[in-house]
Design brief:
The chain is an alpha/beta fold. It folds into two domains: 170 residues, Medium-chain alcohol dehydrogenases, catalytic domain (Quinone Oxidoreductase, Chain A, domain 1, Alpha-Beta Complex); 137 residues, Rossmann fold (3-Layer(aba) Sandwich). It contains eleven helices and 15 strands. The strands form three sheets. Strands 3, 4, 5, 6, 7, 14 and 15 form a seven-stranded mixed β-sheet that branches. A six-stranded parallel β-sheet has the order 10-9-8-11-12-13, sandwiched between helices. It has a two-stranded antiparallel ribbon with strand order 1-2. The longest helix has 14 residues. The N and C termini lie close together (9 Å).
């Protein structure tokens, strides 16, 4: 099999593909022939050595992957040969509250990810993917889609008629637009250009605010919501935008703090925080049980992920460079040629 590995101390230049023997699954493990993987901003941070949890040297990157089960170990009951599956972001978080132990099982950093032609994984650490989705589409779900889903459905939870604010056109934000509309919400979206705004409108956004033209976009959010503000903010940037998100949210509203895209730049105005009567929740992707719940909703609404571009497995470094350019709208996928 072919496998990419990297060392964060050496950056993208260390991302090298090597060939090794295909592993055999042990008891309660399955061998997955990986068909597609996708990148998240986290993957760029990891390979540039600026992620909060440093990657293990020589780790296989990318938390997100989908493929076909080609062999099963003894005692496996959750899968059979031929099943279409996607790995979970946390190999060890099946359900229940998040824990430190679960956090230590992040794929693509603490544990091997999916940028390989084959992967052996535990039978508890995957979900079956909806029949209507391609492998490329399914590979976009484990991190970005589940993060958006849990931001919208946990805590206060979105109700029909609520208003949701999304920031930008990355994977989490676009999934949030699609899922919020499926849940019956209105959507206000910010973006940096009118062209990207057109994509957001096509996905269902009810109001699009160009923050390049309106730097004080929180005022525009208040304007389009009749002064009330939004019920939920999908906060993907972090400290650089959090103050404006606080000024955009309604009394009793909810901010799902995902962070990361802003690179930690900015500071939090404690006055703005004290004046906002809101719940601020840190979103940590989600468990396998959450993933299965989201997939049931996807099947009902037949939502299709937005894919910006698909790169061949042999050109994986170029996929990273495309992500770093910030020119994409939606998910960047690597299709495996095995």
């Amino acid at each position: 099999m072919k496998t990419y590995r990297f060392n964060a101390e050496e950056g993208l230049n260390s991302l090298i593909c090597t060939e090794t023997e295909t592993p055999v699954p042990a008891a309660h493990e399955v061998l997955v022939r990986v068909r597609a993987t996708s990148l998240n901003y986290r993957d760029l941070m990891l390979i540039e050595n600026r992620y909060g949890q440093p990657a293990r040297p020589g780790v296989i990157p990318l938390s997100d992957g989908a493929g076909e089960v080609v062999a099963v170990g003894a005692g496996v009951t959750r899968a059979k040969v031929g099943d279409r599956v996607a790995g979970t972001f946390f190999a060890g978080w099946i359900g229940g509250p998040f824990s430190r132990a679960a956090g230590a099982t992040q794929r693509g950093s603490a544990e091997d990810g999916f940028l390989a032609t084959h992967r052996v994984i535990g039978e508890e650490s995957f979900v079956h993917i909806p029949d209507y989705l391609s492998y490329e589409e399914a590979a976009t779900l484990p991190c970005a889609a589940l993060t958006a889903w849990n931001t919208l459905t946990q805590g206060r939870g979105i109700r029909a008629g609520d208003t949701v604010l999304t920031l930008g056109t990355g994977g989490v934000s676009l999934f949030a637009v699609q899922l919020a509309k499926a849940l019956g919400a209105r959507v206000v979206s910010t973006t940096s250009s009118d062209k990207k705004g057109e994509r957001l409108t096509a996905l269902g956004a009810d109001h699009v605010i160009n923050y390049s033209a309106e730097p004080d976009w929180h005022k525009a959010v208040r304007r389009v919501t009749g002064g009330e503000g939004v019920d939920c903010v999908v906060e993907v940037v972090g400290a650089a935008t959090l103050e404006k998100s606080l000024k955009s949210v309604a009394i009793g509203g909810d901010i799902g703090l995902i962070g990361g895209v802003g690179g930690g730049k900015g500071s939090l105005d404690l006055v703005a925080l004290s004046q906002a009567i809101v719940t601020l929740r840190r979103i940590i992707v989600g468990s396998r049980v959450d993933f299965e719940a989201m997939n049931r909703a996807l099947v009902v609404h037949k939502l299709h992920p937005v894919i910006d571009r698909v790169f061949p497995f042999a050109d994986a470094p170029a996929a990273y460079r495309h992500l770093a350019s910030a020119a994409h709208v939606g998910k960047i996928v690597i299709a495996h040629d095995n």
